[in-house]
Amino acid sequence: MTTLDTKLKRDLRRLWGQVLAIALVIAGGVASLVLSTGSFRSLDETRIAYYERYQFADVFAEVTRAPKTLVTRIAEISGVAAVEARIAKLALLDIPEFPEPATGRFISLPETGSPLLNRLYMRAGRLPGANDLDEVVVNESFAKAHGFGPGDRFSATLNGRKRELTIVGIALSPEYVYAIGPGDRMPDDRRFAIIWMSERALAEVFGLEGAFSWVSLKLMPDAVETEVIDALDDLLEPYGGGAAYGRKYQTSHAYLEHGLDMLRNMSRTLPPIFLVVSAFLVNLTLSRLVALEREQIGLLKALGYFDTSIVAHYAKFVAVVALIGIVIGSAAGTLLGVYVTRLFGDFYRFPFLVFADSPDVYLLAALLSLFAALGGAFRSLREIVSLAAAVAMQPPAPPSFQRALFGRMELGSLLSQRMMMMVRGMARKPIRAALATLGMAFATAILVVSLFIGNAMEELVDVTYFMADRQDATISFAEKRPETVVFDVSRLPGVLAAEPYRQVPIRIRKGSLERRTLLSGRPPGADLSRIIDIDLRTVSLPETGVAISAYLGRLLDARVGDTVEVDLLDGRRRTVELTVAALVEDYFGIAAMMDAGALSRLLREAPTANGVHLSVDDGKLDLLYEAIKQMPTVAGVALQRVSLVNFRQSLAIIVTTMAGIYTGLSIVIAFGVVYNSARISLSEHARELATLRVLGFSQGETMRILLLELSVIVALAQPPGWAIGYGLSWLMNKQLAGELMRVPLVVENLTYVLATTIIFVAALISALVVGRRVYALDLVAVLKTRE
Amino acid sequence: MAETIFRARSLTRTYLTGEVAVHALRDVSLDIQAGELVVMLGPSGSGKSTLLNIMGGLDRPTSGELFFKGIELTALSERELTLYRREHVGVVFQFYNLIPSLTAYENVALVTEISASPMRPDEALALVGLEARRNHFPAQLSGGEQQRVAIARAIAKRPEVLLCDEPTGALDSKTGIRVIDALVNVNTQLGTTTLIITHNASIHAVADRVLFFADGTISKIQVNERRLSAAALTW
Ligand SMILES: Nc1ncnc2c1ncn2[C@@H]1O[C@H](COP(=O)(O)OP(=O)(O)O)[C@@H](O)[C@H]1O
Ligand SMILES: [Mg+2]
Questions:
Q1: A residues 376-405 lying closer than 8 A (beta carbon) to B
Q2: What is the pLDDT of residues B145-156, one digit of tens each?
Q3: Helix (H) or strand (E) run with residue A47 in it
Q4: Per-residue pLDDT for A354 more than 60?
């Protein structure tokens, strides 16, 4: 080992606090990239593997009743690789010791046993025998929620008749990675089940012998989806086909895609910001740290060391620091990535997880950090090494202060001598002061954007659950009912108010831009389920025209007053032209809304309802549940409060966990930056400070002078930090927006306060740690040796 | 007649600070013989360090020529100049300039590792009477001891010239004498050409020649017929 390497080792040990602090800043950037990209890729690959191995279909269509003979004709559509026809129906469940009404999605299994498409992943038990009509397989999350295993029993009201069912198997399906009940916004494992039964049993109950009510298609790789869908629609139309759709509109897939999109967008937005910020901060810090070595560099030159050896020596130092950071960051990022993958893997019911290894991500993060670190060091080295040895060995020449600048302004008399010292110190190195401030501002900004995600979730809950959708429960019917059903529902025990709604699947189009969604009709003056606009005011629907989600408006490039084409996909299909009457800034889904009367005129039908929103007397809930279970026409009941709890426990948890992780990483980065700033500032001013001590300043006074600079930089950095943070939040907001969910761009004042508080706490702790060093300043040594 | 080791002709060094030009050296010409011990005296700012730094290859003149044993230093590339410093010159500074994170031994080894035919670091430390303190860090040594480590570091490569810029400037008189003693020893025992800058006029008695500086020029040269030993100095 050369003596220079010995020096390297000792320097690393001597500066361990700073080395660690810089390494942690690097680690924060590296971890954020490794964790987010790693978890996204793992989940994406899990999804791909799951879909592929379990043959998730590409196109889906529901029909009222189609003869099985149609299957061969469907299979002949060009581009179709496989067809799976089945019976699929919704029914209310009655589960022992569970008062709330639950809904089951009953799906028939072919006589041959396992389906070809949307195959089951059997977790336990077996498939029902073809002739065992009361045996069922249930989805795993439902079984878990009730503690069910093979052998357990519950009952269901199938087509008006109550039936005892025995669980023989537990399974998962790629079709229900995200299983959401009718009218619900969030999955509720206790109240929504996927139940597979023998085809014979379901055909008997629903009178569908020799017929099917649902068809799934697998397409050839070169198939054109829209063409297949059109051909399928033509075949199904006579049988009450409800318009076929691709994966994009398959609920489970859409939610999964959205979740992965959010994760991907987060991984494309935050980590690059973190990485760049950490790179910038490391660059700044190391540049200052190396600048402190000026005299030693000069000495090495004087002793006859080549510039290249000197540069290599410091490059090694910096590389070691960077490597420590990269190792810590990779390890933390990997662990967090696995954690996040499991979190999402649980939320989406994947039967297994594929952990993608992403060497490229580690490499990218490592190289970027290393380059940033080396770049910072080289910036200072280049300057110092180019100096003649004799010059480098001397401390930098005392700068020529601009006395006139402050003298003329009479500012000098306003500021204390101490303040003057600091202000001049900063003024003489304006670029460094500006960079330090900018670095600190970035630390604030990444805190703001991390905290913003949590804010957004709260705001979303607030607006959605407490301002817009104020109903306690929503009953949805298996088939549309005459609107008068609302009177029957009103008479149910505990119902305080009831509001019917009508929902029709539509395709809405402007020019070549098209989306599929639901058009809902609402009674004028609906008070339970309200529409809230961007300014949080209630929107009353115009008597003509359609109100659409603002996001849908952007997707279609439609503004208020524009005409859109709407295909009504219910009953007799028609295409109508409607005027966009309002754009509604909502957060969940993309929706189209109309006045109920206008909608029924449009549909040329008597007023009908697909469901009823209820306001309920809490004390009589159990009676209401009992009564609903007796209503054969009800397909499901969505409970708002349960939905909110589920939201908070699932999606919100995931999002806030992510926000928490990023906040944690930004805190680490912030501390690293502030601590280093303080520490380097001490080294830069060591001699000045020691001189002050010699001149009779107390330790406290000396420390205050040192901290004055730190506090000024921290304080100056806050407003730009907030501004940058808001900008980043805006970017995040854009990135996280999707057709299923958007987050409101609300950065609470508290977020700014919190971000700033964290920075100040970091500054305070750093000050205390560094302050101890002021107390330990060896006056004689500092003045005598030129360290 | 000894060989001429340095031959300076019309050396000029001008510093430009802002709008003002500082003439640190003005047209200095000088010959130094091998084995000589030269003391440089003069008021602060008179150009002593500037000349020494140029001779040590630590700085370059603005104009003029400087030869080291027939090699034109002023024409060397940066890399050749580094090699010149590495092989031929030992330097001692007023503030010792030891690397604080290295022990006395290691500070010397820092130089022996890169030179062609050095003595062992212990040998060099023994020459300045510090063999017992080899494992001490600079912070554990007194100023005089630190300066002697710096001298050991400078002589360990067996340089042909030893350049010392106010080596006693930060020391008390007794310690200063020990340091001068160490330098004189090196000069007499190893025959190393030695140039010493000092503010202490009494040191001039140990020299072969004394150069008096004033305002960037050598105003006077005094030749000593007889050199005193360091022990005989008083100040
Ligand atoms: N790096 C520098 N930049 C500007 N002026 C310098 C520099 N180094 C020395 N000087 C000036 O050159 C003159 C001679 O300096 P120096 O050789 O160090 O004097 P001495 O060593 O005799 O005290 C002084 O006026 C000094 O201010
Ligand atoms: Mg000098």
A1: 388-391, 393, 397, 400
A2: 998 899 999 989
A3: helix A16-53
A4: yes
Residue of A nearest to B146 (CA): A785
Percent of chain A with pLDDT over 70: 94
CA distance A774 to A228: 77
All structural domains of chain B: 4-232 (3.40.50.300)
Angle between helix A16-53 and A359-385 (nearest 10) = 150
> Does any ligand 1 atom lie closer than 6 A to the CB of residue B18?
no
Residue contact A304–B87, C-beta within 8 A:
yes
Residue A406 has pLDDT above 50, yes or no: no
Tokens of A235: 């075949």
Residue identified by tokens 């009457």 is A581
Q: What is the pLDDT of residue A411?
A: 46
C-alpha A483: how far from chain center? 39
State the Rg of chain A over Cα: 33
Taking the centre of ligand 2 as the mean of its atom positions, its distance from the CA of residue A427, in whole angstroms, is 30
Which pair of structure tokens corresponds to residue A17?
């606090």
The 3-state DSSP class for residue A514 equals: strand
Q: Considering only CB atoms, which chain A residues are within 8 Å of B95?
A: 784-786
pTM for the model stands at 0.81
Q: Angle formed by the axes of helices A417-428 and A430-461, to 10°?
A: 90
Q: Is the pLDDT of residue B133 over 60?
A: yes
Q: Region B216-228: what's the mean pLDDT?
A: 89
pLDDT given at position A352: 92
- Determine the pLDDT at residue A246: 93
d(CA A419, CA A725): 30
In angstroms, how far is CA B55 from the centroid of its own chain?
9
CA A2 from centroid of its chain's CA atoms: 51
